[in-house]
Design goal:
With about 400 residues, the protein is of the alpha/beta class. The protein has helices at about 30-35, 55-65, 80-90, 105-110, 125-140, 145-150, 180-195, 205-220, 235-240, 260-265, 285-295, 330-350, 360-365, 380-385; strands at about 10, 15-20, 40, 45, 50, 70-75, 95, 115-120, 170-175, 195-200, 230, 245, 270-275, 300, 320, 355, 390. Helices cover about 35% and strands about 15% of the residues. It is globular, with a radius of gyration of 23 Å.
Length: about 400
């Protein structure tokens, strides 16, 4: 039996009980829930002697208890049949991940139990793309290695061969998965460093292609070398041609270990690999061996196969830049994610419809106005037969 966890409570007299399994940035999300008549219970990461970063299934069941209308959960939690059945038994029918992805959620199990599954699209695109670009630059110019060198007091004067890295200008950037985030990253690297593009996606990214073509024409008008684009027919083609490869696919059975020993061998010896999508897209053990065998090959990782752990040896490699899953960690984005997650739960509890366009969540994010009378994004809305509607002028 899980120990009863201590929580912080807002609006104790609220009619509807909503649990958040982790603290979330800002306070607007709490205000929106309490304004909807909810009692909000939040499990802090550290309370007195308790120190739990990742809650177990038993912990979350304990938080749900015998009466709970909705839960805001996190990507690090395993939301399957057991938890959705517990939430249904407690009278709940609303859940939201504080993430755009939901590979930690068994959506079919939620649907079977009559639980709506919310996510938080539309606020992570630029922030995640910026972090991928930051990892690219850090790896290319060996920033972390140089920083460690300085802090260790090893710098004794300028040397021509000290921390020589890669020039990005005019090189080829490869993007695997040219959705919103992948396309945003591509634009940053193309416009920022005049890189050529090769991309692989199951669907043609016409908008991205048109952007690169137009930017190439602009450069020609200034008598500069134009940038080019190419749509690859295989992932292998991207890996073989690109100087920098950034991964932006969804994680499913077709992309698990997409980058493995054989595909790493196709890449250039001094290439840079960046992953700010999902850890299991890369066979991390194979990557460690490849980095050891190819010291000029570099990688920038925001996510890991067995998160929060790294595969043995990765932490010791100077040609790896590793950060703790911070792609969405800008103030605006994280507070926006908390807002959307809270509204997915609050609006469902109030019986409001699902927003008609989950790709346009801007009306929910304006702090100077009250949000529309709708759930921003429910991924199983069709399976549950939920109404679609919502207008910008309707307010919660």
């Amino acid at each position: 039996m899980a120990k009863q966890l201590r929580v912080q409570v807002w609006n104790p007299a609220g009619k509807h009980r909503v649990v958040s399994t982790k603290p979330m940035p800002g306070t607007r999300w709490i205000g929106l829930l309490t304004a909807a008549g909810c009692r909000v219970e939040l499990f802090p990461v550290q309370v007195c002697t308790e120190n739990k970063t990742i809650l177990s299934v038993e912990d979350i069941r304990s938080l749900i208890g015998t009466q709970c209308d909705g839960v805001i959960g996190q990507l690090t939690e395993d939301w399957g049949e057991e938890l959705f059945a517990a939430l249904r038994k407690a009278g709940g029918h609303a859940f939201s991940n504080m993430a755009v992805g939901y590979n930690n959620v068994d959506v079919d199990a939620a649907t079977r139990n009559g639980i709506s599954v919310g996510n938080t699209p539309g606020v992570l695109t630029e922030t995640t793309a910026e972090l991928a670009a930051a990892l690219t630059l850090a790896a290319a110019r060996r920033v972390v290695e140089a920083d460690d060198f300085m802090r260790a007091g090893k710098y004794e004067g300028w040397i021509p061969t000290l921390f020589v890295g890669n020039l990005l200008k005019g090189q080829t950037v490869g993007v695997v998965g040219a959705g919103r985030i992948g396309a945003a990253y591509a634009r940053m690297m193309i416009e920022g460093f005049k890189m050529n593009l090769i991309y692989y996606d199951l669907y043609q990214s016409t908008r991205l292609e048109n952007y690169v073509t137009a930017y190439g024409e602009f450069l020609k008008s200034r008598r500069e070398v134009p940038v080019t684009w190419k749509r690859a027919t295989t992932v292998e083609e991207v890996l073989g041609e690109a100087d920098v490869v950034s991964l932006h696919p969804v994680l499913d059975k077709t992309t698990y270990h997409l980058i493995n020993k054989e595909r790493l061998a196709l890449m250039k010896k001094e290439a840079i690999l960046v992953n700010a999508s999902r850890g299991p897209v890369i066979d991390e053990a194979a990557l460690v061996e490849h980095l050891k065998e190819n010291p000029m090959f570099r990688v920038g990782l925001d996510v890991f196969e067995d998160e929060p752990h790294m595969k043995p040896g990765l932490e010791k490699l100077p040609n790896a830049v590793v950060v703790p899953h911070i792609a969405s960690a800008s103030k605006w984005t994280r507070e926006g994610m908390a807002t959307l997650a809270a509204l997915n739960v609050a609006a469902k509890i109030k019986g409001y419809p699902v927003w008609h366009d989950s790709n346009n969540v801007e009306p929910f994010l304006d702090e100077n106005s009250t949000p529309p009378l709708a759930c921003p994004s429910i991924v199983n809305s069709k399976a549950l037969g939920l109404r679609i509607g919502g207008k910008p002028e309707s307010k919660l």
